Amino acid sequence: MIGEDNVAKAPADGYTVLYDASAFSVNPSLRKLPFDAAKDFIPVSLVATAPQILVVPATAPYKTVAEFLDFARKNPGKLSFASAGGGTGSHLAGEALNEQAKVNLMHVPYKGGAPALTDVMGEQVSAYFGNVASTLGYVKSGKLRALAVSSSKRVNGLPDTPTLAESGLPGYNVVEWNGVFLPKGTPADVVQRLGKAVQAAVNDPTVKQKLLQFGLEPAGTTPEAFAKFVQDETGRVSALVKARNIRVD
Length: 249
What we know:
Blueprint: H1 2-8, E1 18-21, H2 23-30, E2 41-50, E3 52-57, H3 65-74, E4 80-83, H4 89-101, E5 106-109, H5 113-121, E6 127-131, H6 132-140, E7 144-149, E8 176-183, H7 188-202, H8 205-213, E9 217-218, H9 223-244
Parallel strand pairs: 4-5, 4-6
Antiparallel strand pairs: 1-8, 2-8, 2-9, 3-6, 3-7
């Protein structure tokens, strides 16, 4: 938020750029901001999205999303999900699962993803939505079991793991993301020029391969497409926060 505030107040000359993440669409619903996220920035390009993997302990009795949800419904109050902290992507992915599947997994917030993963492997918590970069290795080594991925399409590193949408939750698509913004008032030609530069960089074969190695799905969009994406994401998060009565204090 400190970085966002500085960019919001920076000269609109194209030389101060905000590289931001999913929190841009989350914070307006959860925190009091010193700027207007919808009005003080111009979306330039979506750089990449980050799918999450729904993982459970390797010894868990359920091997599919259907079995997991069936267990949750038959054993109310027994299952929980870890997060890297209140308002993080892992928290919102779990709450979206609660909302759509009509279950009530207890949220257990941690200070970061590492301790959350440790406690899922140790069977202290029932499940976790982890990003590909930090979670895939544990799945491959057999320390965690992957039930599904949160994105609308399967992850390259886990081609046999279905999406949640394929697992009985149609339309489920919760991803983290990164993108580029400029301060409001930046000339349109500057916005378009930077947008084309970002798209070219993201589509460079070397950059694209690096992003994939980090568990990211390369994007590279027009300013108009990114603006629509941000608007949709902000609306989705706002509705989820209200429906689940999410607080971060």
